[in-house]
Specification:
single chain; about 260 residues; mainly alpha; Arc Repressor Mutant, subunit A; Four Helix Bundle (Hemerythrin (Met), subunit A); 2 domains; two-stranded antiparallel sheet; 11 helices; 2 strands; about 65% helix; globular
C-alpha cells in the first residue's frame, strides 16, 4: 500500500487555485480500506475486526498505523472497543457518513480491474468446485453438508458470515491441493482490498443458503459439471455486492 494521492488530487488543481495538494497518509489509506471492507460486508455489524498485529500483517503496514486507524474509527463511532477476554474493535454499522467517500477513493479507480478480477474469481471457483467434486472423501462430503445446514439455520449476521467462510474453506480443503487453496485466497484478497475475507450481505442469506445446498449436493454426488456451474453462479453474488456498493457510493457523493 503506498500513500499516493487520491483520484482528483492533482498538482494542477493546486496551481489553479483550488487549494493545497492533499497527499493522504498511510493511516488515511488504512481507514479508507477498512471503511470500504465494512461497506462490502467483509466485516458485519457486531463482528470483531482482526487484532492489530493480524491486521498489520494482512495490510502490510506497521502495527502503529493500524492502531492509529482503529483510534480514528473509534472516535468516529464506526467501531466500539470492548475490553476483556473477548475484547477488541467491533463494527457498529455497515455504512456511515464517511463510507461513500472511502468507496470512491478505494474502489472507483480500480473499477475495471475489479471487474476483471471478479470474472477471474468466478471462473476459478468453478475449477475449485469441480476438483472438490472429483476428489472429496466421504468424511469431507459429510462435513460440507453439515456446514451448509449450519449456515442456513444460524440466526446472527456475524454467525452467518463465519459459517459462510467455514463452508468455502471446507470446499477448498476437499480439493486436496494446498496450492489451489492458496490461489483462491490470493484472488479473494485482490478483490477485497488486501483482506482475504469473503464479502457478506445478510439480505442475500436465503438465496445463498439455497445455492450452498445445491452446490454441496452436486459436489457430494460427484456431479462435476453441475458443481462447476453452480459455483460460478454462486460467486457472482460477491460481484453484485461489489457493484452495489460502488453504485451507492457514487449516488451518495453526487447527491446535493
Amino acid at each position: 500500500m503506498t500513500p499516493d494521492a487520491h483520484p482528483g488530487d492533482g498538482v494542477g488543481d493546486a496551481h489553479r487555485g483550488l487549494g493545497p495538494l492533499h497527499v493522504p497518509s498511510m493511516v488515511d489509506e488504512v481507514v479508507d480500506r477498512l471503511l470500504t471492507a465494512i461497506a462490502l460486508g467483509e466485516f458485519v455489524p457486531g463482528e470483531r475486526l482482526p487484532a492489530e498485529r493480524e491486521m498489520a500483517r494482512l495490510l502490510r503496514v506497521s502495527r502503529n498505523t493500524v492502531r492509529e486507524a482503529f483510534g480514528r474509527m473509534r472516535e468516529a463511532e464506526i467501531v466500539e472497543v470492548r475490553r476483556g477476554r473477548t475484547g477488541g474493535a467491533y463494527v457498529r454499522e455497515s455504512w456511515t457518513r464517511a463510507s461513500a467517500a472511502a468507496v470512491r477513493r478505494t474502489l472507483v479507480p480500480r473499477r475495471s480491474e475489479l471487474d476483471e478480477l471478479c470474472d477471474l474469481r468466478c471462473r476459478y471457483e468453478e475449477v475449485v468446485a469441480r476438483t472438490a467434486a472429483e476428489r472429496h472423501t466421504a468424511t469431507e462430503g459429510a462435513e460440507l453438508r453439515k456446514l451448509a445446514v449450519a449456515y442456513r439455520v444460524t440466526a446472527t449476521p456475524q454467525g452467518q458470515h463465519a459459517a459462510d467462510i467455514a463452508l468455502h474453506e471446507a470446499m477448498l480443503r476437499a480439493t486436496h491441493n494446498p496450492q489451489m487453496a492458496a490461489l483462491s485466497h490470493e484472488l479473494l484478497a485482490k478483490v477485497s482490498l488486501g483482506l482475504p475475507i469473503e464479502p457478506y450481505e445478510r439480505r442475500n442469506h436465503d438465496r445463498a443458503a439455497r445455492e450452498h445446498a445445491t452446490l454441496v449436493e452436486a459436489v457430494v454426488e460427484r456431479r462435476v459439471e453441475d458443481a462447476g456451474r453452480l459455483a460460478r453462479e454462486h460467486f457472482s453474488m460477491s460481484t453484485r455486492t461489489l457493484r452495489a456498493v460502488l453504485e451507492r457510493g457514487a449516488a451518495e457523493m453526487d447527491a446535493p
